Amino acid sequence: MSDRAPIIEIKNIHKRFGSVYALRGVSAEIYTGEVVVVIGPSGSGKSTLLRCINRLEAIDSGSIVVDGIPISDSKSDINRIRREIGMVFQSFNLFPHLTAMENISLAQRVVRKRPEKEARGIALDLLDKVGIPEKANVYPDKLSGGQQQRVAIARALAMQPKIMLFDEPTSALDPEMIKEVLDVMVGLAQEGMTMMVVTHEMGFARAAAHRIVFMDEGLVVEENTPEGLYENPKHERTKLFLSRILRH
Amino acid sequence: MTTIGLKRPRSISDAVYGWLNDVPWWVTVLVALAVILFLYIISPANVSATRDVPDKQVRANGRFSYEIRVSNSGPAEAVRVRLGEKLPEGIEFVRSEPEPVAGEPGSLNWEVPDLSRGETAIIEVTLLSKVAVQAREVFSPTSRPAIEWRTVSLDILQFLSLGVKVTILVTLYSFALAVTMGLIAGLGRVAKPPPGLPVIVKPRFIAVGAVRVAIGLLVYFLLASLLRTLPRFTPGLAITFGVILYLAPVVLHPYTLSTVYVEVFRGVPMLVQVLYLGFVVRPFIKVFLSNLFGTKVEFSEFTAAVIGLGLGYGAYLAEVFRAGIQSIHRGQMEAARSLGMSYAQAMRYVILPQAIRRVLPPLANDSVALLKDSSFVSVLSVADLTRQGRLYMSRTYRAFESWNMVAVSYLILTFLFSGVARLIERKLSEDER
Fold first, then answer.
1. B401-416 burial, b if ≥16 CB within 10 A, otherwise e?
2. Residue A79 is nearest to which of B340, B349, B353, comparing CB atoms?
3. Helices (H), A111-201
4. pLDDT reported for residue B291
5. Beta-carbon separation of B345 and A110 below 8 A
6. Would you call B339 an interface residue with chain A, using a CB distance cutoff of 8 Å?
7. What is the pLDDT of residue B58?
8. Across-strand partners of B151?
9. CA dihedral over B361, B362, B368, B370, signed as positive or negative
10. pLDDT score recorded for residue A121
11. pTM for the full predicted model
12. CB contact, 8 Å: A111 with chain B?
């Protein structure tokens, strides 16, 4: 963890969906190389927070600065910023008309303007890294959920982002596939990738996270190291939540 | 994949076309060709000519009369029946009823009136023989008068073949235009809508709008003074242009433009659109462009008809494309955008390839509907099937034959188009397995 300026700086952001108040003044800082896990009950605004960071949702007020560039400013080139922020979705969102290899190489060619050959080379390396090199020419509907999510991670990594955002990457997976995805994520964390992960996988949080942020009703209630939060939660709400998810 | 037992048809068309799923495509084509061939074969009339020579002795330089009977044994009607008779040595022509027409020298030629089935025409010929002869022996018993004819149905096939060609051309051209317009308007329809009209009184809008109007009018003023052929810069024109320029962000927005296009063209009957293009837009553009360029500009009825049909169907296809694009899960767009692709790149590489696959079956269906609606272009005197059929009817007064053949021709064409549509659907469902 460096003590330089944070790579993501979130200041007092608000977001409303009609009558639903999703974020009511969230502030957070994430430093280069840090792995931050966001937990909280459903509807607490953790996914919205993540989606605001690459402007999949526009914020109503406040500011988000990523790598020195203000996200909420309409003058900044959002496509340029998004290249630096990889995102992994709960429902994978692989492109079903493309093979695993093409899924990974498409954005490289179109956005990074890499030649076809180079893009395919990088795609193969990444498929190797996530452990499914033999699935390069397979279409997503022939892959298991865990394999699809690993291709999705490879797809995001292919852009060589500075930050990776994971929006509940294992929530849609069968239990036995969760491990293969988490292994890839832990490996990524060990390489020093800056990561922000919305998840309920406490094992992953314990193994890889530097910090855990607990959110409820659109606010950051508490943040601490995994050990600090698990063993010594300060707020009643945190205690209640942890007691529910850690009971089993 | 093998299916055991009978598949239950999902609809009547499925029952009718179901067999198409089980036969190769070329069988479909062969069957269609066989139908055409069958119609061709059963159609001709059968005309024959016989002589009826009296049994009598003719003196030298004596005259004798005989009859040529031309009869049609059907089934179709014979038209343009021409009869030829070659006279043997020593025999001369005297007169005949009806009179012969000019033809090859040394032979007699007659034009026989049209013969419907079972009808017989009789030509009475009087000849002169230089030598004494038995009348029956003048012509050899095996010879027959030469006869040629056209059958009505064969004739109508030739007549309609132009119509078929034009109908197919009109359909293909206007379908290409419709798909282009539909895709463009469909993309416009899924674009983020412009701000509502109240925005036009906001200070920022007024400031930017005023500058836009000033620059726009100045440019037009300069252009109009340089290019004499442009309409003069009048107050009315200035106000129109000014209003459009001021409202440009709202009115010239892709969403507004495509919505207006779709609503207008879906709300006006296809026939009226074709008439409008042919009789309002075509003359206007001809005059306008001719004045602008100083030379005569060609703008055929065919072009007007294709544009009318194409724009009309484009409005329907726009909604097909819109539905197709919107049916793609929004996660696809989010994933593409999160990789740094622009909206246009995400559309082109991620959304459209999926959406177009999804809309191909309804598109193929609409091509069949367009083929049928192409009959509207006949009102612009474009020589399509309907027009040719009508023309044939007004020449021959044979409504039954004319419209029968027109209807059957359309049926064959739509049958072929539906076959293609089925093939596309089958191919897609095979891919998705």
1. bbeebbeebbebbbbb
2. B340
3. 116-129, 145-157, 175-190
4. 80
5. yes
6. yes
7. 83
8. B78
9. negative
10. 94
11. 0.75
12. yes
